[in-house]
Amino acid sequence: MASEKRVLVTGANGFIGSWLVRALLAKGYSISASVQPGSPTAHLRALPGGADPKRLAFYEADLLDAAGLEVAAEGCRAGVFHVASPCSLEDPTDPEKELIRPAVEGTVNVLEAARKAGARRVVLMSSISAMIPNPGWGKAHPGRAFDEDSWTDLDYCKANKKWYAVSKTIAEKEAWKYAEKYGLDIVAINPSTCLGPLLQPGLNASTAVLQQLLQGSKNDQGDYWLGCVHVRDVADAQIMLLEKPNASGRHLCTNGIYQFKDFAETVAKVCPGHNVTRFEEETQPGLVPRKDAARKLIDLGMVFTPIEDTIKEAEESMIEKGLLRGPSSNAN
């Protein structure tokens, strides 16, 4: 495959990264895949085209390994997808070491590697966690749904120990500073809670939101919820952002903005036989709903998978992988 079609994908064997690799292979790209040292890659090699080292080459490189990332990025002039970012199912004991430094310094390392490789564009995987929580949004923008102008309130997050949001927000801001300083072409994607079938062997943080809800959790996701999106759509949107010359700036990627309460009701209907909590009160008081919240992506041609399909496919995948018990006839 010609170097014009080679791209780098960081975090290639994670939940989103795996789907991105699958979509890129299907579109004829060759991929340099950077992964955490010692992490599993067999599920990527099993993809159509994944067993061909000319199509899919692996590089073990920690986000703080600047030299390793530069090696991985060599020849990736078609673009770089920076997907990797530390995220744990457990609260960090050392947020600076476990989340913030790898996310922020790692992003700069990847951008530096992309610039040195002559990459045409970098697609940065950010998050709604770089957009919310933003408690002051409603007062500053009455009646306006959250959009790409919203940035997470770092002081609020630090005071409430929401360290993942801190890491993603600082990392994205550093990316935009880098782009301005060096003239690097960067576009960002900010997905909401990402669901769908798992290609990787283990459970990831976003899928755990649905798993726990199906198991009876009463967590209403508080400050973290804007909606959900199919992981396949996130992968497709990233490729669209690489390929569309007119794409620029940030892109909220969600199949609508709505309350977690409404999501739980949909889950209960789509996945009967589980002990799904029904929330009586608003879970995100004052949240302004918007069906076409991802208007920037929609205008580029994005068509989102129905939420019901997204939920059902995620449930079936978790059951198949032994991460969730099947439905029971006596569940609420």
From TrEMBL:
Keywords: Oxidoreductase. CDD domains: FR_SDR_e. It comes from the Eukaryota. One of its GO terms (molecular function) is oxidoreductase activity, acting on the CH-OH group of donors, NAD or NADP as acceptor. Residues 7-248 form the NAD-dependent epimerase/dehydratase domain. InterPro entries: Epimerase_deHydtase, NAD(P)-bd_dom_sf, NAD(P)_dehydrat-like. The keyword Metal-binding does not apply. This is NAD-dependent epimerase/dehydratase domain-containing protein. It comes from Dioscorea zingiberensis.
